[in-house]
């Protein structure tokens, strides 16, 4: 299947989900007023990918800001990944946060406590 | 005496104000406000932590205004832009900011909102975290994309109580004012 990619904007992140190598990236800001519009295609794409996922799917999430509207959609994305992980396929979520950004670290830990997928918290040191 | 919007606005718009706005709250307006405030915070070279918190709280405050604005009845429309809201960001002192927002609200919704804020204000840090996670995991997004998490997130990120008032505008409508200190 085709990779799904979105160029980042001031309110939406850069996205590249590549089924060929199983590396998924979400990077930048996610602060749209209506996040469903933005995330629905990603969730739909994941439904397709889940039918024949790679042995290992690596998800790199590197958000500078995200709003509460996005937080639910990001959870929906993670729930799809959880479904893939429940099979025999490996999934890992690398959650990046900037040095001293405790709020972003905590946000990652919130997801980690809800979603049964291994998380790795990675501090970006400037 | 009914609530005087100009009086309210001029009181807010005093001191060390980074940005003050009253009018329509649109998606473009939100983008512009965020851009301006972000640039100003950069110039003031505040701690990165505070800058991020101010930005986050501003995003949620603006989007609350965007999603939860009640339109006034037609006969009063002339005096106010559609989706009318007020936003003032001011600097209290080094690394301390105040974000004030105001919008009209139908009196029927006051109890729900007041109960929600009082509840949030009564919770400890740990309880707020649990509330956030519960809503995140159990409540669906509205069609507009609102999730009922904005105020919880603001309280959690600032660690401060949400100050608010409801001022009577006419029989049916009140003006809801919310003040958040970010430090």
| Structural class category of chain A | alpha/beta
Q: In what order do the strands lie side by side in the largest sheet of chain B?
A: 1-2-3-5-4
CATH architecture name of chain A: 2-Layer Sandwich
From the spread of the alpha carbons, the general shape of chain A counts as globular
Residue fraction in strands of chain B: 25-35%
Radius of gyration of chain B, CA atoms, in whole angstroms: 16 Å
The number of distinct helices of chain B, counting runs of at least 4 residues, comes to: 7
CATH superfamily of chain B: Histidine kinase-like ATPase, C-terminal domain
- Looking at CATH, which topology of chain B would you report? Heat Shock Protein 90
The two chains with the largest interface, and their residue counts, are: A-B, 26 and 33 residues
Mean pLDDT of chain A: 95
Identify the CATH class of chain B.
Alpha Beta
For the termini of chain A, the CA-CA separation is 36 Å
Low-confidence stretches of chain B: none
- pLDDT under 50 segments of chain A (min length 5)? none
Number of domains of chain A: 1
How would you spell out the order of helices and strands of chain A? EEEHEHEHE
How many beta-strand segments of chain B? 5
Q: Give the number of domains of chain B.
A: 1
Q: Total helix count of chain A?
A: 3
Largest sheet of chain B: 5 strands, antiparallel
Molecular structure report:
The complex is a heterodimer of chains A (126) and B (183). Chain A has 126 residues and is an alpha/beta fold. Chain A has one domain: 2-Layer Sandwich (Transcription Regulator spoIIAA), CATH 3.30.750. Chain A is built from 3 helices and 6 strands. In chain A, strands 1-2-3-4-5-6 form a 6-stranded mixed beta sheet, covered by helices on one side. With 183 residues, chain B is an alpha+beta fold. Chain B has one domain (5-182): Histidine kinase-like ATPase, C-terminal domain (Heat Shock Protein 90), CATH 3.30.565. Chain B has a 5-stranded antiparallel beta sheet, with helices on one face. In chain B, helix 2 (27-43) runs antiparallel to helix 3 (48-67). Classes of the chains: A alpha/beta (126), B alpha+beta (183). The A-B interface holds A 10-11, 31-37, 65, 67-69, 71-73, 75, 98, 100-103, 106, 110, 113-114 and B 27, 30-31, 34-35, 48-49, 52-53, 55-56, 59-60, 63, 66-67, 129, 132-133, 136-137, 139-141, 144-147, 149-150, 152-153, 157.
